């Protein structure tokens, strides 16, 4: 599949823009830390600190900047999560070690790293100290456990109005955060889609805005169940060029077989004037969309091992059963729970 995690891809595209990161830091960072950072020196670190095995699952967005009051560089590590993880420290420590190894290899002094997690999943994120994961440990052994913190931005803690009117200033970041916050609720997302697009009405006419809009359209096509036609029609009301772009992207994805079942069946059914063709297209499209969502969920929770169930899942043609499997993947604690449904 071309996009293994559409959430990560959208996050990377947005946070690779320096001005978006500055806006994010200004809106979410604790004031005591923010006032010590010289954001005018903020620079993206283009080195990758993850290996090939994990490159599609880890976000790997890193920036550095100097302190205001001394010649000290600080590393800012941004990690995105669309689902809650049991112990985020283990993944974060892999990053920290890679960064410090790079410092050491280049004969640099070790840089302080501030890990930042952006979370927009369905479940409640339970923040704990690393030492709390070592249950039953005696006080004498605590000094042997690494201790560090991360800064959490949980989008569920903000309302749509706060994101739009108070927390962030840039149109692209506002739209990104609003889409991520509501991506799992198709009703709210569909009802608010025009409101969200309105934020970027002027920005979409600029060169950078067109590129961002393309990212937005792809994210909606891959990560939500909103019909492509609804995205196209809504964008047409905001921007004629935006409507054309959304249709062009949909056509490209159809050609590549990415959303064939979801859109092509509907279009062909309508063009041929056959109601039964449209219904069949809708059914096939729903099945394709569900299987794609299950595939993403399995890989996110269980890695490559989770994909061994796909061959059996792809043989299922009952929408209700696929919907049950999709929900089971979200709440499952192990793969055996999912296998019982197959």
TrEMBL record:
Family annotation (InterPro entries): Rpn/YhgA-like_nuclease, Transposase_31
Residue intervals of the Transposase (putative) YhgA-like domain: 5-189
One of the GO BP terms on file: DNA recombination
Ranges in a coiled coil: none
Taxonomy, superkingdom: Bacteria
Any GO molecular function: double-stranded DNA endonuclease activity
PANTHER family (alphabetical): INACTIVE RECOMBINATION-PROMOTING NUCLEASE-LIKE PROTEIN RPNE-RELATED (PTHR34611:SF2), PTHR34611
Protein name (database record): Transposase (putative) YhgA-like domain-containing protein
Organism encoding this protein: Kuenenia stuttgartiensis
Taxonomic lineage: Bacteria, Pseudomonadati, Planctomycetota, Candidatus Brocadiia, Candidatus Brocadiales
